Records
---
Amino acid sequence: MSVNQQAHTGPPYGQPQPGYQGFQQPAYGGQSLPGAPQSQYGAYNGPVPGYQQPVPPQGSLRAPPTSGAPPPASGASHPSGHVAYSQFEHGDVQNGIPASAAPMQRPPASQPFLPGSAPTPVSQISTFQQYGPPPGSVQQLRNHMAGMTIGSTAASAPPPAGLGYASVPPVSGSVSAAGSGLYTPYSASQGAPPPSVSQPLPVAQPPFPGQTMPTQRLPAQLPGFTPPPPSTGVGPSSYPPTTGAPRPPAMPGPPLPGQTLAGPPSSQPNHVSSPPPPSTMAGLHPGPPMSGLHGPPPPTHPPQPGYQMQQNGSFGQMRGPQPNYGGAYPGAPNYGSPPGPPPPPKRLDPDSIPSPIQVIEDDRNNRGSEPFVTGVRGQVPPLVTTNFLVKDQGNASPRYIRCTSYNIPCTSDMAKQSQVPLAAVIKPLATLPPEETLPYLVDHGESGPVRCNRCKAYMCPFMQFIEGGRRFQCCFCSCVTEVPPHYFQHLDHTGKRVDFYDRPELSLGSYEFLATVDYCKNNKFPSPPAFIFMIDVSYNAVKSGLVRLICEELKSLLDYLPREGNMEESAIRVGFVTYNKVLHFYNVKSSLAQPQMMVVSDVADMFVPLLDGFLVNVNESRTVIASLLDQIPEMFADTRETETVFAPVIQAGLEALKAAECAGKLFIFHTSLPIAEAPGKLKNRDDRKLINTDKEKTLFQPQTSFYNNLAKDCVAQGCCVDLFLFPNQYLDVATLGVVPYQTGGSIYKYAYFQLETDQYRFLNDLRRDVQKEVGFDAVMRVRTSTGIRATDFFGAFYMSNTTDVEMAGLDCDKTITVEFKHDDKLSEDSGALLQCALLYTSCAGQRRLRIHNLSLNCCTQLADLYRNCETDTLINYLAKYAYRGVLSSPVKTVRDALINQCAQILACYRKNCASPSSAGQLILPECMKLLPVYLNCVLKSDVLQPGPEVTTDDRAYIRQLVTSMDVAETNVFFYPRLLPLTKADVDSDSLPAAIRNSEERLSKGDIYLLENGLNIFVWVGVNVQQSLIQNLFGVSSFSQISNALSTLPVLENPFSKKVRSVVDMLQGQRSRYMKLIIVKQEDKLEMLFKHFLVEDKSLSGGASYVDFLCHMHKEIRQLLS
Ligand SMILES: [Zn+2]
């Protein structure tokens, strides 16, 4: 009766086994060796071993292989494995996102040889078809080119640099006038006119010597925080940030069902004294004639000395207007206001309002040194910015699940009153640090995992055994189920099974079950997955050197395909396709002396012209593959073809996987809008004039539903699509991204790809993407205890019903956000439970279930809710909610709704939880004190308030990217990390202390680094010492620094080493390789950089933090009055 009874299981459970090999973590950049081909996997679908006698190349198509299994039955609405997995619904009514009423249809059996699609003759490699139209006339080429070029001839001239995603395309006529610039210049129609780029922005703050500084100081208006009452205990938000605060007690084991645990201790509200009501202000001070926003009014309160004590330990200090951004929202287009009059002379002191840096620092100091032990129900974890270890004692690690609140209102009325969304951000295959134990794999043999009879929840630590252990009561639906005889165990005097600590599923929050055949499609264990590399070989791709680069890289990268921990080589098979407006398939069977190419020019009805020899084992076909990768760049070196197809490429990959009866991933490297005649052909419909109109949403919607249908077919087959884009102009990411998005894949975008500057970034992304842990053919179901229900889902997936999240592929970086709603009352005693079950196929073809459990507290007092929220997770949810909203609503509506919801959250707190105080005080819950600053960052983001340099494709790209981000990624994406490099200690490994994202924090004499997960900026002040410039850039003066650098020069001095190690450390923390951009102060690129100084007013009209806080305060007061 041990979990170790099967060969698949891990070592004896009970002691942590970090070296457990059952589930290998991806070895990024590690020394994973290809290994000799000791075991071969020729039996998978493919030809049986006897097939290896060389088959002479033939002049016509070969018949499909006879060794494969018969095609799966077609027409079944669900494979039986899925039925077993999901036959029990939580409830009949679901409020989830609308799904198509028809059950998802599995595609019919593959039919590689379709009637009517005339196969193209196979040609031997020695007579490789010289692709392409016989070198067409120059005029023809020009016509092609003209078709590709929009607006101006500048299109093909890439700019010297560009933002990772925000690049500078000559998009549409209205903004392409200055196509040679780094980004489109700000036009007069775009809100606040920017200062001329040749003129440095006026800098008016102390750090900049020689500048005038506003002198008005108004002590009477001092905002500040009331001194916090004594902290009564621990909690993520307990204050003050003394080091060595008490830790959560370590529990010997997970709490038993029904166990009541004290909630986190109370924390203190933040009291920010704030301006008097607008009416007063209007009387005293004619503020800017804004329709929606008011700058802070003048003070009416007498000085309150007690307020001078800052919560953060510093003293409040009035400052003048922020540099450059004096007015409250002058010209903010989204507020429909005309440019305002000169700024009001008084404003909140930025140092007196809640600081993200301080909150992050406090949490690190308070919670970074002790492990987070998950035995306690409803425990709020440390912030994502804190480094901490997790010990699983019955609840899933916060690396897998984070919640907006760990204490849920007992009733829906209370939830509605607070407006706090109840959501969980789930990353089922998250990578763990090496110090933490991977989920154990439990094998119950042929009987499979033990589950509740009614709701089908999986055995977990919260199930309660009764009647001497013969039955168990479900913690989700209360149904009583017989314990299967093989699973019976006696109970001890506390009612706990005596094998409690021997079984991961009884004592841990996260674990895996080996799935039985019932959990497999068509009741058949899956074959190992396949990777198909599909390379655009049109003119631009070849000319830029991209095709050669990809082929060179694949030669070595194929040795690093994901492997199961104990396997010597990867079970994944590979295949290759190249394409422009026709497709070329390659036979790389190991028995061939040379690869063979087969061209399919009838793209209207895609089929795969060869089965035997298309998907191969890398080691077996090593020489043929190497030969192919050598030849591809040569074959297309002289191509004149500029047009591409896109949908047929995905269809080809899908058909190949169908024919091989396996799941897999397509890696598509694509350069242009697919305008060639073919299914899924697109037209250029970019139109920036739609911004801020009711039709703006169309920019985010696909231009045809063709790709939605294709995505559905791909999901049914487990065909995940990763798309690498290299556009020189608009290519409609909103449409091309549909299939990657709905299949759980990734999109990478390298605008104006240039070999010299971008290859390193692209190759790093590609390497990581190919090597990372990924599950295929995945279905995720979130079960909840009675009273709440998962009602809405956000992320990259497909849903054919209201409960099952389907993903053709799910990798270790992908996150699914789930929202919950009440359908009954909850009880404080029993709390609330979540169980996330992910059924997937591992990279070796093993069918598994990964289970994550989390227990939350429930409350009848709003104060308990507001003490246990996590703002970073709340922002993750709100951003995803808003980013989905732009598909159906005008952006302004989405923004207003966000502001309104957050104002209601904070007003409810003020009304019900805060101690009585004057209306002039803004009072924020301790754990939500950063909600305004972070919310403002979401509102100002490129999707919701685009600057003129942001293209339609950038916005579509960002929208899709954010939707799959985890909490750490959204945190740094919306509030970038800004580090003073010149303050770094060159002798230590640590990062310099971060500073707030505002220009006034920058000093002309220093160098700073700013990262947001996509880009790293290195900003150099004009007064930086020459020696520092020499040490970092290897040039003797500021003016000699080149901002075309894409990496820092390798110089042998401590400062250079330190900065490069900081950059490397940050790169290692992110799932994508960030683009390095050097920005010199007062250089024109600085405007891009300033876009990320998110506490300042943005040039696209986004409010400064101070102004936004005042606005929120006003909104809250209106709700309260
Ligand atoms: Zn149940």
---
Amino acid sequence: MIPSEMEPLQVYNILSAAVQPRPIAFVSTVGSDGIANLAPFSFFMLGGSNPPSLMISPTLNRNLSEKDTLANIRETGEFVVNTVHREMVDGMNRTSAALPRNEDEWEVSGFNRLPSSIVSPSRVAESLVSLECKLFQVVDHGQFAGSARYIIGEIVAIHIQSQAFANGAIISENLRLVSRMGGPDYLDTATLDYFQLPRP
Ligand SMILES: Cc1cc2nc3c(=O)[nH]c(=O)nc-3n(C[C@H](O)[C@H](O)[C@H](O)COP(=O)(O)O)c2cc1C
């Protein structure tokens, strides 16, 4: 199959089902107007550890506008990546709706805020791990709906809740992270249960 000869939606469906399971970055940002935003991204990966860095890609919207998360990060240069476990999926999913930029998505999510130590956006109190990030670079690739906007962030602070941390290390099974599979499918890495979450 040659992607350039296919319908963009089919390319998305095939690639997002082929590259799985994908971790979920639940990203907290604030705009220069002070309005806070939360949104999940599974085009997400760790990039390095010295200096520690990661990548998320909010793709261009159908009307070619940039997602609020990206707009906020361009404005302020800061964001927090929070992890998602099974009990958090409904609140996380609600924030993936296309909401107006001036709507505070914390209210929609039902999650609680904790202050970050270095960056301005709050971290999610329910998440077992939160990574405070400062923008290193945005790489624009393409000018179409679905084109990548690679946000590379340097991780400047790490928060781990005590139930997931012992003797200087993370207890992986206690994180109970949820992964994104193809379409509406998710995997609970604690139980290896598949479940579905229709988009709002
Ligand atoms: C689990 C999950 C993963 C998602 N991953 C991505 C992604 O990697 N890139 C993307 O552009 N949108 C992704 N979305 C959709 C965004 O969350 C959605 O477009 C959201 O409205 C963006 O919010 P914002 O405009 O407030 O930044 C995902 C949605 C869900 C539920």
